[in-house]
Design goal:
The chain has 92 residues and is mainly alpha-helical. The protein has four helices and three strands; from the N terminus they run E-E-H-H-E-H-H. The protein has a three-stranded mixed sheet with strand order 2-1-3.
């Protein structure tokens, strides 16, 4: 089953959930706090799998929903990376 992600910003645009896109952003957050590349990949993979499990039986979620679930899960493995992941928009 494909889950659609409604983009933030009130435009009500949606796209099919892309696990590679999530994995990339999680990996970038891990690398930003100087995790080793292999560790960053493994952590991003675990979190992506958790989000995919959470998406099961959901047809539509928001980007904020996905970010919240991913950040909460990332907190378990890499608290500093979770902070980067949650606040990257504020930092830029």
């Amino acid at each position: 089953m494909n889950s659609y992600v409604v983009k933030s910003g009130g435009l009500h645009e949606s796209e099919i959930f892309d696990p590679l896109k999530l994995h990339g952003s999680l990996m970038a957050a891990c690398l930003a706090v100087r995790s080793l590349e292999g560790e960053a990949h493994m952590t991003a993979q675990k979190i992506t799998e958790r989000v995919i499990d959470w998406l099961d039986n959901k047809t539509e979620v928001t980007t904020d929903d996905v970010r919240r679930i991913a950040a909460n899960s990332l907190q378990t493995y890499q608290p500093e990376a979770a902070y980067m992941y949650e606040t990257y928009k504020d930092i830029l």
